[in-house]
Specification:
By secondary structure, the chain is mainly alpha-helical. The protein has 6 helices and no strands. Helix 1 packs antiparallel against helix 3, helix 1 runs parallel beside helix 5 and helix 5 runs antiparallel to helix 6.
Length: 123
């Protein structure tokens, strides 16, 4: 994979990770909710007007464009597994931004992902 392809894949991964973090921030702002016939409209409105959620959706939209560019230059069998790096980014960011737990099991899983992507990228 050349530098441009790798860069596009990594930008796509980061945009996807940022989108997840923005969606989480948006749901934190809204609070826990359940959909029912009585609250579909009010909850739908809260979701549709929450700035973090809108920004997250925007990041997803841009990430799709970047991903299409990446796939036009890289093999999907190499590029797609690299999306798993988003788990690493999100685990670190969720710990830092939201105070989520980083347990030994999560650390071990994150290490496995990093090693796997490293092996894949070198193949």
């Amino acid at each position: 994979m050349n530098v441009l392809s790798f860069s596009l894949v990594m930008i796509g991964v980061l945009l996807n990770a940022v989108a997840q973090l923005l969606l989480k921030a948006g749901t934190n702002a809204i609070g826990a909710f359940e959909f029912s016939a009585a609250n579909v409209a009010p909850v739908g409105w809260k979701i549709a007007t929450e700035p973090y959620i809108l920004a997250g959706i925007g990041c997803y939209a841009v990430s799709v464009v970047v991903w299409i560019l990446a796939l036009s230059r890289a093999e999907v069998s190499v590029a797609y597994p690299m999306l798993s790096l988003g788990y690493v980014v999100n685990a670190i960011a969720a710990w830092y931004l939201f105070g989520e737990a980083v347990t030994p099991g999560r650390l071990a899983g994150t290490a496995v992902i990093i090693v796997g992507v490293f092996i894949l990228a070198r193949s």
